[in-house]
């Protein structure tokens, strides 16, 4: 079978699924972002209800030295609450738009999580000891009567059950008029950027009361607005470089050394439009929903509605690779416009070695493309195909004519089951796929 | 013509989405509003292209086709003016054309249907026309037509139309049947006519359209 992601023998199999099985999905439980940390030991998800759930991988057990550890819940906390902007009479959703991990600097873990308006830095720390034998208070916290204290003792640290605490250490608020779509931690580990529809701000992780505005595409007259910023990311190793994508399908690379305000790009990436494929919806489907640098920093990948493109940073006039995700939808754009699916923002991700890329589709399908062999595979995240260590069977969509056995026709696809968020472990072939309110973890079969 | 009907349908659909996005939690999303307006503009371009062809033929047959102008009125202004040379290459001109009036587009369907089908059957139904043709609404719609044109009755957004009327004339019941030409729209558009419009006739619809557009960008 197709071996995508490194090696011809690679097969993907089911590892775990997290989340309720109910048919009735509460909107608050819908997963809105998924992110592995730098080591891959922690996996964070954010949902529409403003909660963050962090899973931690178990240490590999001695009994099964070849099987990877499972991901179990490590910490759950409410990151954002719904708020109300009284000035504009607008409700601010608590949905977590993005989570980005910070590099680990001590025993605690830190991450940034953001909703439409506010970014928060959370510190997740473990406590497995507590001090006992205080002089002035009892074990339950009540103050001791000072007259009863007749001796002095030194409190002693005693082990206790592991407790994982999350605390908001920084709150970066009031810097965005429009809805935040991206955050990205810089390689200097000191700064990060946040992007909304029209502006990008640069923050210092320690400073919450001000940020630098580095991109501003708001026109003087809003009636002249033609494009918005859809995603932004810092370069993985050049701390002065970042890119942002637009709703017109273009990407701009900016160098912060050139000017304080990076309104003039250093590089401009755009593929000329194919005039024969114009339709009512050409402009909408060319809007880029996600941009990700490769780990090497040499390439970047963009996702628009129907395809994924890999760009070489040294070549601006066209992408070096284009992969069709679900080209069979091109003739259905009108229906997809009617049911609002055409506005779905799919994300994409690289594997650890940049040899493969992955993105989601409908019907709980997700697609992987091997850049070296040019092979692609469609897999499904479903309870039916979730037998422990069960190998995932490749899926195929029948685009017309006779439907073969095991193929699914375009009209039978469930457009309510969409995979917008996926993540790939930074070092191993382990992937996390968010299907509405469920998180699936798949891994390669160890041959 | 199917393309025209499709364009109208898409414009109606887009308007509906635009209005419902105002009710969403989290407020109107700028990106979504922009995308909706782009679709409306594409639909409008196609509509105008087809109309250009059909009107060229209809002009020979009857003096102006009254009902058809109305549909485009609201959507054209609902689109951000594009300096980068889209259909609004001459914003002034396109505004003039959109003045035709009115409410929103399903409105004149019944009045316009008979007028539309005849000329349009002869019009070639090529899609590619839309990419090369920059519609010039000003040529299609003459002031004379607007005078005679009847504001349609049904509308995709009746609430807004009545809001508009009620803002200007508080407490007055909307008693007049809307299909009769009245002095009211002319007075209204004279007020708004100060924003540099060339022909000042019946343009109630444009005010709705600009309100609609301001809804998109207002934050």
From TrEMBL, chain A:
Q: What is this protein called?
A: Serine/threonine-protein phosphatase 2A 55 kDa regulatory subunit B
Keywords, A to Z, come to: Repeat, WD repeat
PROSITE patterns linked to this entry: PR55_1 (PS01024), PR55_2 (PS01025)
Homology family: Belongs to the phosphatase 2A regulatory subunit B family.
Recorded hits in InterPro entries, A to Z, give: PP2A_PR55, PP2A_PR55_CS, WD40/YVTN_repeat-like_dom_sf, WD40_repeat_dom_sf, WD40_rpt
**Keyword Repeat: yes or no?**
yes
- Tell me if Nucleus is a UniProt keyword of this record: no
Q: What is the lineage of its organism?
A: Eukaryota, Metazoa, Chordata, Craniata, Vertebrata
Q: Which domain of life is it from?
A: Eukaryota
From TrEMBL, chain B:
* Record's compositionally biased regions (Basic and acidic residues): 98-108, 185-194
- InterPro entries given in the database record: IER
Where are the annotated coiled coils located?
none
- Lineage, top-rank taxon, reads Eukaryota
Q: Annotated region Disordered: where? A: 81-204
Q: Which family, according to UniProt?
A: Belongs to the IER family.
Instruction: Tell me what this protein is called.
Output: Immediate early response gene 2 protein-like
């Amino acid at each position: 079978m197709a071996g995508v992601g490194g090696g011809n023998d690679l097969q993907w199999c089911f590892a775990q699924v997290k989340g309720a099985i109910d048919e009735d999905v509460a909107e608050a439980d819908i997963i809105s972002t998924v992110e592995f940390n730098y080591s891959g030991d922690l996996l964070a998800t954010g949902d529409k209800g403003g909660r963050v759930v962090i899973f931690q991988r178990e240490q590999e057990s001695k009994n099964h030295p070849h099987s990877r550890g499972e991901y179990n819940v490590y910490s759950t906390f409410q990151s954002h609450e719904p708020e109300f902007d009284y000035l504009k009479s607008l409700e601010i959703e608590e949905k977590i738009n993005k989570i980005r991990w910070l590099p680990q600097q001590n025993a605690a873990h830190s991450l940034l999580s953001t909703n439409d308006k506010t970014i928060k830095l959370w510190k997740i720390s473990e406590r497995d000891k507590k001090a006992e034998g205080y002089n002035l208070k009892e074990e339950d916290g009540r103050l001791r009567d000072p007259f009863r204290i007749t001796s002095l003792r030194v409190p002693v640290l005693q082990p206790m059950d592991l407790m994982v605490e999350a605390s908001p250490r920084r709150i970066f608020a009031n810097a965005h008029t429009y809805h935040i779509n991206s955050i990205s931690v810089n390689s200097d580990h000191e700064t990060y950027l946040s992007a909304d529809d029209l502006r990008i701000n640069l923050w210092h992780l320690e400073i919450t009361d001000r940020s630098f505005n580095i991109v501003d595409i708001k026109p003087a007259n809003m009636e002249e607005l033609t494009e918005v910023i859809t995603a932004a990311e810092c370069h993985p190793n050049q701390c002065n470089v970042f890119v942002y994508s637009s709703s017109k399908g273009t990407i701009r690379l900016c160098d912060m050394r050139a000017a304080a305000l990076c309104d003039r790009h250093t590089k401009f990436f755009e593929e000329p439009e194919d005039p024969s494929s114009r339709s009512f919806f050409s402009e909408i489907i060319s809007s880029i929903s996600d941009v990700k640098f490769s780990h090497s920093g040499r390439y970047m990948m963009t996702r628009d509605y129907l395809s994924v493109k890999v760009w070489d940073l040294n070549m601006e006039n066209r992408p070096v690779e284009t992969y069709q995700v679900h080209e069979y939808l091109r003739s259905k754009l009108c229906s997809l416009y009617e049911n609002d699916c055409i506005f779905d923002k799919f994300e994409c991700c690289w594997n650890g070695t940049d040899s493969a890329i992955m993105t989601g589709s409908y019907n709980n399908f997700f697609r992987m493309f091997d850049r070296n062999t040019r092979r692609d595979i469609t897999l499904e995240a479903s309870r039916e195909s979730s037998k422990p260590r069960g190998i995932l069977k490749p899926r195929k969509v029948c685009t017309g004519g006779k439907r073969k056995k095991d193929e699914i026709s375009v009209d039978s696809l469930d457009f309510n089951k969409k995979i917008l968020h996926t993540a790939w472990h930074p070092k191993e072939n382990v992937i996390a796929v968010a299907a509405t309110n469920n998180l699936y973890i798949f891994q390669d079969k160890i041959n | 013509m199917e393309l025209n009907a499709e364009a109208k349908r898409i414009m109606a659909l887009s308007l509906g989405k635009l209005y419902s996005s105002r009710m969403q939690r989290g407020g109107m999303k700028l990106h979504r509003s922009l995308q909706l307006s782009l679709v409306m503009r594409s639909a409008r371009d196609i509509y105008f292209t087809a109309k250009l062809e059909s009107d060229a033929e209809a002009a020979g047959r009857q003096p102006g086709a009254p009902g058809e102008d109305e549909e485009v009125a609201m959507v054209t202004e609902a689109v951000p003016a594009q300096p980068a040379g889209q259909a609004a290459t001459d914003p002034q001109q396109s505004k003039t054309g959109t003045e035709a009036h009115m409410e929103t587009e399903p409105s004149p369907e019944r009045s316009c249907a008979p007028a539309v089908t005849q000329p349009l059957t002869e019009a070639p139904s090529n899609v590619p026309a839309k990419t090369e043709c920059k519609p010039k609404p000003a040529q299609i719609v003459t002031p004379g037509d607007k005078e005679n044109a009847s504001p349609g009755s049904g509308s995709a957004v009746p609430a807004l139309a009545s809001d508009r009327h009620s803002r200007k004339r508080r407490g007055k019941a909307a008693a007049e049947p809307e299909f009769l030409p009245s002095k009211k729209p002319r007075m209204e558009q004279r007020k708004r006519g100060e924003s540099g419009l060339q022909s000042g006739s019946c343009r109630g619809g444009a005010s709705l359209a600009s309100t609609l557009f301001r809804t998109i960008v207002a934050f």
